[in-house]
Fold this sequence. Notes:
The protein is α/β, with parallel strands linked by helices. 26% of the residues lie in helices and 32% in strands.
Amino acid sequence: xxxxxxxxxxxxxxxxRILYSESDGLRPTPDRVRENLFNIxxxxxxxxxxxxxxxxxxxxxxxxxxxxAAYAVFADKSGECIKNIKYNLDSFKIAPDKFQMLHSDCAxxxxxxxxxxxxxxxxxxxxxSGLYTESISTxxxxxxxxxxxxxxxxxxxxxxxxxxxNAEVTDERTYGTIMLRFIRPKLPTAGG
Length: 192
């Protein structure tokens, strides 16, 4: 089986290769996009609890751990992706108390993590899956994202998804054909 790799951009594991096997639909976030994303999040990562939902290569969670996140949960329904992420965690010698792995689809992972209150959730589902709106809404309603938490989505720039009523976009950035959206739970209005 052919292995590909992408690199950790900064932090403790800077320059280390994240290995992954080719699989249908696996679309790693380009280095340039990840670098820009983590430059934006640099003040939020140290000490954060992060959820890498639809993990794929696990690059978001691994980069966050490299930059000082306290804890990362990796969730993906692909057994091959979970196996590769575990291999990379082991090869980086990341302590087992710094991560959790969930071999499950998004809906089950969010159910299992109900009330956990992550600081940052990264969502990069298959672009044509239609899972964005429901996943964001469920993450907020279930307390997977706390009131001050942040959801970052990666989606195609030409096909933005509908935002659920319980969420608001605080920033959007476009890099070529990829759009990153920074989303927070919508705070209740006075009297509402």
